[in-house]
Amino acid sequence: MLAHTNKLTGQRRPARILLVDDHPLVRQGLADLLRRELDFEVCGEAASHEEALRAIAASPPDLVTVDLSLKNSHGFDLIKDIRARFPAVRVLVITVHDEALHVEWALRAGASGYITKEEATLDVVHALRAVLRGEFVLSPQLASQVGAALSGHAVRGTHISHHALSDRELQVLELIGEGLDRHQIAERLHLDVNTVETYRARLKEKLHLKDAHELLQHAIRFNRGATGASH
User: Fold this and answer.
1) Is residue 218 part of a domain?
2) Both 196 and 174 in a single domain?
3) Beta carbons within 8 Å of 95's beta carbon, 6+ residues apart
4) What is the C-alpha to C-alpha distance for residues 29 and 55, in angstroms, rounded to an integer?
5) CATH number of the domain to which 189 belongs
6) 140-151 and 100-109 helices, crossing angle to 10°
7) If 83 and its partner were Cys, which of 69, 95, 109, 110 is the partner (CB 3.0–4.6 Å)?
8) Is residue 155 assigned to a domain?
9) Does residue 194 sit in the same domain as residue 95?
10) Which residues form the domain of 127?
11) Distances in whole angstroms, Cα of residue 80 to Cα of each of 85, 90, 110, 183
C-alpha cells in the first residue's frame, strides 16, 4: 500500500488521483476500481484539456491519468501543459493507442508511464503505485515495440521515418488521417490556415510524399499503426 504525507500535518494520506478521459463510462470504471483501494483517492474527473487544467489548479492531485483522445484537443498537449505548470504532478497515460510512436511521443511530452485500456483493468493499480513511487511504467509488449523501433529492428517503414517530425507535425499528420481538412485542423490546433499548409508541405517533404493524396493515405496508415511509407 502506498500513501503520501501531508506536508502541513505530517500525516499519511491516500494519493490523490485525477481521471482525464472524454468517455464518462471509462472514467466511472476507473473511479470504481480505484475506490476499492485504501491508498487512492479519486479527487476529480475531467473530459477535456481545459477541464483538467482547471481541476489541477483548484485542487492539485498527486497523479493524473490521461487519455490521448480528448474533446477538442490531444492528450500530448495536456501532458506538456501539466509538466510545465504543475511539475510535481505525475502523469500516467491510459489509452487505446498501442503504437510505439504514440508511446515515444507521450514520453517526450513528459508522461511517467503508458498502458493501454485493454491492460488497465489488470495493471492500473500496479502502474499507479509504481509511478507514484517515482518509477517509470511501460507494459512489456509496449516496451518491446519501443525498443525495436529505437534500435532499428522495427518493420520496414514503421515509425523510423517519423522520428524527424516535430510534435506539431505529428499532430497535423494524425488529424489529416482522421479526415480533417486544413480549416478544421487550424481550428482544432488554434492555428492560422496558412500555418497548417506550411506543416502539410513539411510533412510531404520529410516523408518523401508527392502530393496531398499520398499524404492522406500515409496519414491514414499512420493512425492505424501501419505507417508504411508510400515511396
Assistant:
1) yes
2) yes
3) 66, 67, 68, 69, 75, 102, 114, 116, 117
4) 20
5) 1.10.10.10
6) 90
7) 110
8) no
9) no
10) 3-148
11) 9, 11, 6, 24
- Rounded to the nearest 10 degrees, how much is the dihedral formed by the CA atoms of 151, 153, 157, 162? -20
* pLDDT, one tens digit for every residue, the chain (231 residues): 455 654 443 457 899 999 999 999 999 999 999 999 999 999 999 999 999 999 999 999 999 999 998 877 789 889 999 999 999 999 999 998 877 778 878 888 889 999 988 876 668 899 999 999 998 888 767 776 665 554 444 433 334 356 678 888 888 998 898 888 889 899 988 999 999 999 999 999 888 888 888 888 888 877 766 444 344
215 and 143 in a common domain: no
Let me know if residue 230 belongs to a domain: no
Q: Return d(Cα 90, Cα 95) in angstroms, integer.
A: 16
Question: What's the residue count for the chain?
Answer: 231
In this prediction the pTM is 0.66
* Domain termination residue (choose one: 80, 114, 148): 148
Which of 4, 24, 2 is closest to 12 using CA atoms?
4
DSSP assignment, residue 23? -
Here the cell at position 99 is 503504437
User: Dihedral of the CA atoms 64, 70, 73, 79 (nearest 10)?
Assistant: 20
**Segment holding 182, helix H or strand E:** helix 182-189
- How many domains, the chain? 2
CA angle 144, 146, 151 (to 5 degrees): 95
> 202 and 108 share a domain?
no
Structural contact between residues 160 and 152, judged by C-beta atoms closer than 8 angstroms: yes
